[in-house]
Structures are given as structure tokens and as C-alpha cells.
Design brief:
With 159 residues, this protein is an all-alpha fold. The chain has one domain. Helix content is 86%, strand content 0%. Helix 2 runs antiparallel to helix 3, helix 2 packs parallel to helix 7 and helix 5 runs antiparallel to helix 6. The longest helix is centred in the last third of the chain and has 32 residues. The radius of gyration is 16 Å and the shape is elongated. It binds fe (ii) ion (2 copies). The site of one fe (ii) ion has 5 residues, from helix 2 and helix 3. One fe (ii) ion (FE2) binds next to helix 2 and helix 3.
Length: 159
């Protein structure tokens, strides 16, 4: 049972969310531009890959169930504003005041979005998708992230 759970899509999404929170905490304690740069690069990759995989796999599955359709629009809008922020931050001076302001904004947006996904959205998903579907979606979610990795790396390199 424990092994099975590791690949259902909700567990994978949760694990990604915890990773993002960990990086935000590291960024807060970062001393020096080098460490902050590392944290930002990690956030850029993790958040873009996660958002992409959700948009490609999770949200379309939610579209297939009446109970979950209503959550998609807002979630996608939140993804878009996060992506815009990440692109803006890419070319800012690391650790400068504009960068810091956007980093705070980014963290707030992510916390809000994560909280919504893990409460309301997960509850609605659990109410209409069975274990088998969630496991299949988990595999697709992993695969989508894998496919996108090189592209995200490339776009991070374009500063
Ligand atoms: Fe998410
Ligand atoms: Fe999301």
C-alpha cells in the first residue's frame, strides 16, 4: 500500500509542493548572491515543471469530471501569474530590492495556490476519481515532467 501511494498523482503533487516550500525556506536563509541564485534557479525549474505537468495531466483530468471543473480556471490563472513572475525575476539583479519584492510575491502566490490545491481541490478530486485513475495520472504526471526538463533548463539559461 505504501509503495502504491508513492505514485498516485496527489502524492506526487504534494511532494513537489513540499520541495518548493523547502526551497523558499532556503532562499530566506540564503547568505550571499550565489546561494540566492541557486535557490532561484531551483524554484524556476521546479515550479515550471510542476505547473506544466499539472496543466498537461491534472487539470485536463479535472475537466473530465463535473465535480472538479469549476476549479480549473482560477488555478490556471494563478499558474500564469507565477510564470510571468519567474520570467521577470530571471533578468533581475539577484538579491536586489526588486528581486526581493518579487520573491515575496512569488512565495505568497505559491502558498495560496498550494493551499487551495491541497484542500478544496484534492477533496473534490478524491470525491470523483478512483485510486486507479489517480495512479495512472501519477505516471503521466512524472512522464510529463521528464519530457519538459530540457526545455525548462534551456529557457532558464536564456537570461
Ligand atoms: Fe500544484
Ligand atoms: Fe497548480
Amino acid at each position: 500500500m505504501a509503495k502504491k501511494k508513492a505514485t498516485d498523482i496527489l502524492s506526487l503533487i504534494e511532494a513537489d509542493h513540499r520541495t518548493a516550500e523547502k526551497i523558499f525556506a532556503e532562499a530566506e536563509g540564503a547568505k550571499g548572491a550565489k546561494k540566492m541564485q541557486e535557490c532561484f534557479d531551483q524554484l524556476y525549474k521546479e515550479l515550471n515543471l510542476h505547473a506544466y505537468a499539472e496543466e498537461l495531466v491534472f487539470y485536463p483530468a479535472m475537466q473530465d469530471h463535473e465535480e472538479t471543473q469549476e476549479y480549473i480556471e482560477e488555478a490556471e490563472e494563478e499558474h500564469n501569474s507565477v510564470k510571468i513572475l519567474l520570467e521577470e525575476m530571471k533578468s533581475l539583479e539577484i538579491g536586489g530590492s526588486e528581486f526581493k519584492t518579487r520573491m515575496m510575491h512569488l512565495k505568497e502566490s505559491i502558498m495560496h495556490h498550494v493551499e487551495e490545491e491541497e484542500s478544496e481541490i484534492f477533496e473534490a478530486v478524491r470525491g470523483c476519481m478512483g485510486e486507479e485513475e489517480l495512479m495512472e495520472l501519477g505516471q503521466e504526471f512524472q512522464a510529463a515532467k521528464g519530457r519538459m526538463e530540457a526545455e525548462v533548463e534551456e529557457s532558464l539559461a536564456k537570461r
